[in-house]
Design a protein that fits this description.
Elements lengths: L3 E2 L2 H23 L4 E7 L3 H16 L3 E7 L5 H13 L5 E4 L9 H5 L13 H8 L8 H14 L6 E5 L6 H10 L3 E5 L6 H6 L3 E4 L17 E4 L3 E5 L2 E5 L4 H4 L5 E2 L6 H20 L7
Parallel strand pairs: 1-11, 2-3, 2-4, 5-6, 5-7, 7-8, 8-11
Antiparallel strand pairs: 9-10
The structure holds NADPH dihydro-nicotinamide-adenine-dinucleotide phosphate.
């Protein structure tokens, strides 16, 4: 049996289309345009690619996009002052500070200076607490995209065994919270987990967010499981640069029931969810019904 391929690119296009239609209605009926500000400090090449692709997608769905590109030696005071201005700007509904920040900046302090209502990445401590206690929050985009694909594929996730490999604040932990919220039985695995392969083989849903190219191989996958590959790793193969996930796709797809590819799986859904979060933030700021 070969796994069904979960087409994140097509799903993301559908989500972006729904967001664009909602944005058009907001403009027509209320004269409101959602606005997203993205702040990039320094010249990390991968971050530059992400930021420009986020800006392009924002404009494509009819939102206002503002990019602030600051030099790598920007002081913390200057960055905090910019965030304070964006917090106070009523035409901006979402603020995203691209991570990682240069080492001299305190990421936690910077992220926690964003107005939680505009924290479309969902990394502010208030949103983390709200998510953890099952209250309305801004949900981190990558895990939200994974959850949407899982719900779309399975319908109900209740009672399924979910294993999340990785415990970062931006992917692993919020992913586990979301799966718990959908009544999965959740295990979080990490670098100190004993017999990772056996833990993974217990998973009906296996989410890999490790940052290690092709580490999760087919023998670690339960037959028929759904595998979500969050990893984005640039490797050299046959003298060429290639993008691979944290899952060894060719072996895993022979065992899994369904699997996300890299590229074309989780990545496109992350940006679609960023746009959806910005739309949600805009609706909440204006006291309008939220998109479903
Ligand atoms: P981090 O490096 O912050 O976290 C990696 C996690 O994997 C850690 O919890 C670590 O455990 C765990 N880990 C590392 N090695 C092993 C191992 N050998 N066995 C078991 N667990 C291990 O990464 P992120 O969460 O930020 O990102 C994970 C991946 O997702 C990366 O490839 C990243 O590029 C990608 N990513 C993709 C996005 C998308 O839009 N598709 C968005 C964000 C990230 P420990 O805590 O013990 O060190």
């Amino acid at each position: 049996m070969t796994a069904a391929i979960i087409d994140g690119k097509a799903f993301a296009a559908k989500v972006r289309g729904e967001v664009a239609a909602h944005v058009a209605r907001l403009k027509e009926e209320h004269g409101i345009q959602p606005g997203l500000a993205v702040v990039l400090v320094g010249e990390d090449p991968a971050s530059q690619v992400y930021v420009s692709s986020k800006g392009k997608s924002t404009v494509e769905v009819g939102m206002k996009s503002v990019e602030h590109k600051l030099p790598a030696d920007t002081s913390e005071a200057d960055l905090l002052a910019l965030i304070a201005r964006l917090n106070a700007d009523s035409s901006i509904h979402g603020i995203l500070v691209q991570l990682p920040l240069p080492g001299h900046l305190n990421s936690e302090l910077v992220i926690n200076s964003i107005d939680p209502a505009k924290d479309v990445d969902g990394f502010h401590i208030s949103n983390v607490g709200l998510l953890g206690t099952g209250q309305k929050s801004m949900v981190p985009c990558t895990p939200l995209g994974c959850l949407m694909m899982l719900r779309d594929h399975h319908g109900s996730l209740a009672g399924l065994n979910a294993v999340v490999v990785g415990r970062s604040n931006i992917v692993g932990k919020p992913m586990a919270q979301l799966l718990l919220g959908d009544s999965c039985t959740v295990t979080i695995a990490h670098s100190r987990t004993k017999d990772l392969a056996a833990v993974c083989r217990g998973a009906d849903i296996l989410v890999a967010a490790v940052g290690r190219p092709e580490m999760i191989t087919g023998d670690m996958v339960k037959p028929g499981a759904t595998v979500i590959d969050v990893g984005i790793n640039r490797i050299e193969r046959d003298g060429k640069g290639k993008l691979v996930g944290d899952v060894h796709f060719d072996s895993a797809k022979e065992v899994a029931g369904a699997i996300t590819p890299v590229p074309g799986g989780v990545g496109p859904m992350t940006i679609a969810c960023l746009l959806a979060n910005t739309l949600t933030a805009c609706c909440r700021a204006n006291g309008l019904p939220e998109p479903k």
